[in-house]
Amino acid sequence: MEGSRDETDETLDAVARRALDVAEGMAAVTGDERCGTEHLLFGLVVTAEGDVAEIARLFALDRLRVERAVHLLRERSCDMTRPPAATPARSPRLTVALESGGRGRLTPAELLAAILADARSGACACLRLLGVRPGEVRRLAEVAAAGLGHGDVESLIAALDRRTDLHRPWWGPAPAEPVRALPLPGGGPVELARSASAVGRLSGLVVGGEGLGFTLTVESLPDAPASSWLLAPRWQPREVLVPGDGARERLDPELVIVAVGDPAGPRVTNHRLRHRFVHEAPTGGALVLLGHTSAVERRNDRRCPTRRVEVSDWWVWPLPRRGEIRIGLSWSAEALTGSVRLDAALLGEHASRLASR
After folding, report:
1. Which of 3, 59, 62, 254 could make an S-S bridge to 231, C-beta 3.0–4.6 Å?
2. Which CATH architecture has domain 2-159?
3. What is the mean pLDDT of the chain?
4. Can you give the pTM of this predicted structure?
5. pLDDT of residue 9
6. DSSP letters of 229-298?
7. Residues in the chain where the model's pLDDT stays below 70
8. Residue 154 CB neighbour total at 10 angstroms
């Protein structure tokens, strides 16, 4: 068995061999009994040179993102109480990929194409977790390994064409999707919450065929204590990479928690990071940050306090159709908490009118 393993390794060039060493080392450290194609994908990204490095940059495949995807896929934790396995066994799909080179030595590009040949492989699953189509990466790897001709260029452009409905912003209005601006209660911005140092307002509301958009504004008060606003507000949780356990969201005091939903029922929050553009249909409700801006106004007068304004745009999917919905925010760092209630039936009526146009 060991002799067969050595013979297989002889079919790899020097860079591909280093990638395999990294893959087996990662599998051993994380306590995996088998080294799979997902581990080799990580190894290829870590040791990437030339064409493979270009492919990795094109799809934003850095070592941190790929490592996180591997941990999410394997759902294993690093056990630091026991020594890692000497050399994990290779999975059947990895073995097939390593033996796909024939007589010549496998290059990293050929190896990348080989581990993506099976749509059920761990490498393909990792790419899908990152929002990347494995077929596109494989096609580029095949082109890099075989040389680029005119026909290859045409087919590559067609494969990467995003002008279809396969890749769309499920959680947020599409660029050409019509939306309707709705009047706010009272005709202007609605105050959600007020503390000694800040005020939060709902300053905009729009409805689309599939979701609800709104704008939140948090502004410092002129008579705010000097000790306030020491931490700039965050609209998304901080992502922390735990070695051997993937990435986790951390809810820090500076996080402005936004929640939308039925006052007595389910709701969606910004506790989790959500990627707006995906090509798989979403499986549940989501609250997505579309963008935010920060402004600081300092006047040339010490008697005038510094003014800070934070504006964030949000999208709720799907659109609530009945009952009441509540839009609320909570910023523990400045003791700012409050909400406003809206009529979901009225929002659904506007969405229906928009769809009937």
Report:
1. 254
2. Orthogonal Bundle (1.10)
3. 80
4. 0.54
5. 67
6. --S--BSSPEEEEETTTEEEEE--TTBEEEEEE-TTS-EEESSS---S-BSSPP-S-EEEEEEEEEEEE-
7. 1-9, 75-86, 101-104, 147-176, 241-247, 263-265, 275-282, 301, 303-304, 321, 354-357
8. 10
